[in-house]
Amino acid sequence: MEVAYFDYFEISMTLEQAASASHAGDCEQDVVALLELPEISDQLDLIGPDLIKKELLEFGWIQEELNDEELNRRRIVWLATGSLMSSHRDRLL
User: Fold this and answer.
1) Does residue 72 contact residue 49 with C-beta atoms inside 8 Å?
2) What is the reported pLDDT for 41?
3) 2-10 own/partner pairs: CB under 8 Å, 24+ apart
4) What's the whole-number average pLDDT of the chain?
5) Taking 70 as the threshold, does the pLDDT of residue 70 lie above it?
6) Separation between Cα atoms, residue 92 and residue 76, nearest integer Å
7) What SS3 class is residue 27?
8) CA Rg value for the chain
9) pLDDT at 88
């Protein structure tokens, strides 16, 4: 299990899960598939929408863009997959 660390929480997933939604091209359906997994969605439920929104504000989104909780969950999972894959590539170098 790999861990994506954020300022206010962390998200765990396997490297295979991260790779499935961090690739060239449109990743949205792959992120949605990850959100259907209880091991991912349960973590986000525990974190809660307010902390997810707070973290996304740190990444540069503006308040008006963050009113859709489901879209925010997609955004944070996409960021987590990218972070994990980047860390994995760095360890291989």
Assistant:
1) yes
2) 98
3) 2/84, 2/87, 2/88, 3/84, 4/79, 4/80, 4/81, 4/83, 4/84, 5/83, 6/55, 6/76, 6/79, 6/80, 7/55, 7/58, 8/47, 8/51, 8/54, 8/55, 9/47, 9/51, 9/55
4) 94
5) yes
6) 24
7) coil
8) 13
9) 78
